[in-house]
Amino acid sequence: MNWLAIFLIVVGLFFLVVGSIGMLRLPDIFSRAHALSLTDSLGAVFVLAGLAVYEGFSFNFLRILVVLLLVYLLNPVIAHATIRAAYRSGLRPKKKETK
Amino acid sequence: MTTFFFFVLITLTALMLVYFYRVVRGPSVFDRVLGLNGISTKAIVLLVVIGTLFERVDMFVDISTGYALLNLVSALAIAKFLEEKGASQK
Asked: Looking at this predicted complex, what is its ipTM?
């Protein structure tokens, strides 16, 4: 059981690290939101699932699953609302320069 | 296992510093909002990890649920406010 938990947590940390590299390196807000929203929800879900497995099948397992579900549902909602606000207030995606 | 959880804690804190850089240096205000959203997702995970480390998950899970809901409300409120305000923000 512990090995499954460690595997899930390491996979989740990998996703979180990739997301933060994208947050540092990408050029404009839309691509940054892409990096953050996708990897962040998946990584957090993997880490929380690993912690739930480590906890074993008890009441705490269900409570961690509630947090997992909340993160998985609400993270894309927040990213979408922020990006819609950015688009409506005049920011536009950066185009590749054509020669 | 304790060592592994310490490793997870340190990694998550380092990632939060990366997002904090984006919050401080972000060119537009939306970058800052997005960075804060990333930081609070990490904080939710971090709270559950701390609970597992202290073997008091039952207490820390409640705190992180509250933090997730608070994060949703504050981020949606800020997004709505900036959308209504219009004009490109610097």
From this structure: 0.85
